[in-house]
Design a protein that fits this description.
Layout: H1 2-28, H2 31-37, E1 41-46, H3 48-51, H4 57-66, E2 69-72, H5 78-81, H6 91-102, E3 106-114, H7 120-123, H8 129-146, E4 153-158, H9 175-180, H10 183-195, E5 200-205, H11 217-230, E6 237-240, E7 243-245, H12 251-263, E8 268-279, H13 288-307, E9 311-316, H14 325-329, E10 332-333, H15 346-357, H16 369-372, E11 400-404, E12 407-411, E13 419-425, E14 430-436, E15 440-442, E16 449-456, E17 461-468
Parallel strand pairs: 1-2, 1-9, 2-3, 3-4, 4-5, 5-6, 6-8, 7-8, 8-9
Antiparallel strand pairs: 8-10, 11-12, 12-15, 13-14, 13-16, 16-17
Bound molecules: (3S,4R)-3-hydroxy-2-oxopiperidin-4-yl beta-D-xylopyranoside.
(3S,4R)-3-hydroxy-2-oxopiperidin-4-yl beta-D-xylopyranoside binds next to loops.
């Protein structure tokens, strides 16, 4: 009896040990590691409480364990980085970059040209086109150069499309659009690329997860991306913010359709600000089935994300329901992966389950290895150069163009191959064409202004922004 008893105790002990071992394994598994193995990034914001050292210790523990891409909730916006004219404040952004580098986390920069969170001193110049162009250029040059090689990707333009049934540019309450016109977008991309040629450059917006019907925001954005790509405006990604509600059941499939449309244009689609909220009023009555439903929606987003080869980042606008812009500003609540006590919700388990259901061998990554495994310390200037390559915008070796007065000098065009010179305005409209003869082209017929010039022959092409004075 005794013997049997002790044997069964051994068996029980082994079972407990075994169970313990498995649990330890499960606990070690993170959505960050699973995403990384699949060549993808999963992330969330560092919120203002974190920047102000006013956050629970669990926040950072979970943050660096579970996420490998990060974005600042407010601290890299225009009003934060240039609070007074030509006076820059990089303190908080630097704090985030330091944290990200120490923890091997990719950084998204948010946002350069946006109608919101613009300081008053900018609005004081409203309607003054040349001044506003100069302000935007100076802002982009300073901010993007400061973070060159440290911020992997910028939301160059945020929310520039209106909410009308027939989408068009947001023409009211936007100091940039009202003062400059839609060329502010094209210019912003060109300047950002100039300031950091290796950064990925996104157009970011909300409600583009509502589908590609005629006249929709998503269709409008796809049309603009087509135009940008055609004219070599250096856009590489679109961000769908995706602030949705529990009732929006079709949105994951809309995101899939958008990803497919952008894949045709060789552009990546990122989910940049996902939250799936319940109406504020329902907060007290939410039960297991509600959280399961939320988990199901999160799962569908992750499924789509992993199944579409041109999707790269899955970023949520918050980590814990204890800190979310939704409760204060949007009449929504409890939209995130962790609850107010920092406990993972069914939504977290669903994201994890989706990652596991898509083996690494079957998930394609839009990124080369140099991006997935960047060097840890990017402190020196040269570091950024190896991180990201926007191949399409790198001129063929040895080829360059330079404008001197009204003459465009072209070097590196293979002898005997006639080159064409096409000039576009900042809206991408063809403005002027000529031939490049004896390595030069005369542009004196063009009026003063900003343009994009493309020099191409049958085997090579180079694009550059020029300013005709
Ligand atoms: C929000 C922040 O979360 C708030 O703290 C701030 O008061 C307003 O902006 N789309 C965006 C984000 O691109 O920058 C917004 O962030 C949320 C909507």
């Amino acid at each position: 009896m005794r013997k049997i008893h002790s044997l069964s105790r051994i068996a029980l002990g082994a079972a407990i040990l075994g169970a313990g071992f498995m649990n330890a394994n499960a606990a070690d598994e993170t959505i960050r590691e699973l995403a990384k193995e699949r060549g993808r990034f999963i992330g969330t914001i560092l919120n203002s409480e974190w920047f102000n050292d006013a956050i629970e210790p669990e926040f950072e523990e979970i943050h660096k364990k579970q996420f490998n891409v990060v974005v600042a909730e407010n601290e890299m916006k225009f009003d934060a980085t240039e609070p007074s004219e030509n006076v820059f404040n990089f303190e908080k952004g630097d704090k985030m970059v330091e944290y990200a580098q120490a923890n091997g986390i990719r950084v998204r920069g948010h946002a350069l040209a946006w109608h919101s969170q613009v300081p008053n001193w900018v609005n004081n110049y409203s309607g003054q086109k040349e001044k506003l162009l100069a302000i935007l250029k100076n802002h982009i040059m300073n901010v993007v150069r400061h973070y060159k090689g440290k911020v992997a990707e910028w939301d160059v333009v945020n929310e520039a499309v209106n909410d009308d049934y027939n989408a068009d540019w947001r023409s009211t309450n936007s100091v940039w659009y009202e003062g400059i016109g839609a060329e502010f977008l094209d210019s912003a991309f060109v300047w950002t690329h100039e300031a950091d040629p290796n950064a990925e450059l996104c157009y970011n917006d909300y409600s583009i997860e509502w589908g590609l019907r005629e006249g929709s925001k998503a269709s409008f954005v796809v049309e603009q991306v087509k135009r940008w790509k055609k004219n070599n405006i250096p856009i590489t990604c679109v961000g769908t913010q995706t602030h949705i509600e529990i009732a929006h059941e079709t949105t994951p499939q809309n995101v899939r359709a958008l990803a497919k449309a952008l894949a045709e244009l060789d552009v990546t689609l990122n989910i940049t600000e996902l939250d799936i909220g319940f109406p504020n009023g329902s907060a007290g009555s939410l039960g297991a089935s509600d959280y399961a439903k939320q988990g199901h929606l999160y799962r569908q987003f992750m499924d789509v994300f992993l199944e579409e080869p041109n999707m790269g980042e899955f970023v949520m606008w918050g980590l814990t329901d204890a800190h979310s812009w939704l409760d204060e500003q949007q009449g929504k609540t409890q939209a995130l992966l962790f609850d107010k006590q920092y406990k993972p919700k069914p939504a977290f388990d669903s994201v994890m389950a989706s990652l596991k259901a898509h083996p690494a061998s079957e998930v394609k990554s839009p990124y080369p290895d140099s991006i997935l495994n960047p060097p840890k310390d990017c402190g020196d200037e040269s570091c950024g150069d190896s991180i990201i390559a926007i191949k399409k915008f790198i001129a063929p070796k040895g080829m360059s163009v330079q404008l001197v007065g009204r003459t465009l000098f072209v070097t590196g065009i293979a002898a005997g191959k006639a080159a064409k010179v096409d000039v576009f305005d900042m809206q991408g409209r063809p403005t002027f064409s000529t031939k490049c003869e004896k390595s030069r082209a005369d542009l004196s017929a063009i009026a003063e202004g900003l343009y994009v010039v493309r020099v191409s022959n049958s085997s090579a092409s180079i694009v550059k922004k020029i300013s005709i004075k």
